[in-house]
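Internal ticket - ligand job 669, fe (ii) ion:
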Amino acid sequence: MVEYKIEITTGDMIDAGTFDYIYGTLIGTEGESERTALNNIGVDFQTGMTSVYTVKARSSLGKLLLVKVEKEPFFLLPEDEWYCSKIVVTTPEGAVILFPCYRWISRGELVELRGGKAMKVFEEDHPLLIDHREKERTLKRSLYQWAIPDERLPHSSDFKNTSELPAEISYSKSKSMEMLYSKTVIGAELMFKGLYESTDQWEKIEDIKKIFVSKKTTKSEYVAEHWKEDDFYGYQFLNAINPNVIKKCSELPRNFPVTEQMVKPFLEKGSSLKREMQKGNIFLCDFKRLDGLPVKVYNNESLHVTSGFCLFYVNPENKLMPIAIQLYQQPSEENPIFLPSDPETDWLLAKMFIKNADTMQHQSVFHFMSTHLMAEVFAVATFRCFPVIHPLYKLLVSHFRYTLQINTAGRTSIFGREGILSTSSLGQKGIAELVRRSLSELTYSTLCLPENITARGLESIPNFYYRDDGLKLWNIINSFVTAIVEYYYPSDSEVRKDAELQEWISEIFTHAFLGNKASGFPASFNTVKEVIKFITMVIFTVTAQHAAVNNGQFDYYSWTPNGTLLLRKPPPTTKGQSSMKTIMEALPNVGETVSYAAMGWVLSDKYTDMVFLGAYPDERFDEPAPKQMIKEFQAELACFSVAITTRNSQLEVPYTYLDPKQIENSITI
Ligand code: FE2
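stdout (structure tokens):
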């Protein structure tokens, strides 16, 4: 008889433990062990517990292939699912092998775990493992299926609601409870104050500050104080929640006829627009993509969505100042160019309408489509194409934690007919059409930050912390991905030979980018370099980019005048006709305002079981090399976090969204 030591760890989340009987069987190249009841004196398999058991075999099992785990009832107790984190086996020969599990196990379920080093499909040489690998993929492909809710939007998983999701990818109980608590507390406060669903109009702008007593952030308070100021307005197009639109302007669009005379007073003395353009100090936001979209009908009237331009100037103090706004694409007498020297409320309204267009585009395109919907396709393709033993599954799976849960919920509550975006000036149809247009224009370069920044001519614009931190993070992620990918793919031929990897990228090309070759997205991989770039983009998108466009929702949008999805009145068409009353009438009513602020709070709140960038609490790699690479990645991120803190201590408005300590490892909210 020979003895194998097996060490089993139960998950540390609420209710991870079980009172059921657990049996273990080891399967090796030379035979199977006894089916052994894993039972020590006292309780076993409780939350966070690691216990050691002995499993006997008649003789050495040779190379260990699988660990079979079975769960059976303990007398008449009802089923309590068990979350098994990992099993570590020590063989009589002294080898220590990790079998990652990280899943819930039910009674009667067949669970056969693979362990040891990561394997690509063409490296498998044992018939049992070849068969096991294919069976696992077949099962996963039936579990995770594609749905096409709209031919021109990224495809999704076919889970209709969150109750259909497999337990492994659902929110933990603690997260669900905390979210529910947060929503209840917010709802109760708003209800108590009579704000919830109130159709009243705000009387005074200061009253908006009364929404939440307990829920404030330093930034949300700063925004409420400074939202009217031009330099803070400009700052937000670089460092708030939507740094994705602004670009360098070296020639004015023909349909935006700003003259030298108009903007001269706002430029450096003696300078001109032409000269400032040559010096690279002029920038533009162009909302052309919103032109002609369907709009929401509100109180029997069609709302107004501006598709115009905002021109910016980097002044000698390095501040980005808005200097001209035209609210629609076609210049006309009813579509004048607004200037900072216009009556205060005209200029403020012009800025608010531009911000309204920006907010709608931010939430639907740069947040929902470019991070959430992309992440869902990356996740579903990963679950379908890679077995758990594949090195890229081991690398990527932590980056998709909870993503299908938030997206399945968000498809209704954010993007659906009754969702929060349907309350915007564009309404649900306009928002959906905007996303369709945006997807058809999406390119691979847009999602790769270094190329994105160059394409927009933003390499040297001053005080652009999103760019500075984002590029640094891109490089840190890229170095980590390079190390891992080169370790598992020493040559390009390994990339070409990996049928599962080719299937993965092909599914992503079809289901995220709808097979659009002009987008520049790869449909297959030929080189190691291509794989590294794509996986860097995937990890960057679902971590840093999502944090940049998600985490500041409460900071910047809870003070609705600064950025609102809805404006209820038409924008000014002539100058000198507006007043503060016009602004108050245009702002969302009390109930709408509080629902936006509440959404911002829930979606940028912190929850106790958050996992931050690079943390990888699930141990999935068994080889020392990738474990070391993870440690180096974490050290680089920690170092960068310190640098950000030091930089931020000098800033009036700290830029925190790309601090690795604030970035989640996946899209969970
Ligand atoms: Fe989000």
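Auto-summary: The CA atoms of residues 29 and 102 lie 25 Å apart. Residues 367, 372, 546, 550, 603, 667, 669 surround fe (ii) ion (CB under 6 Å).
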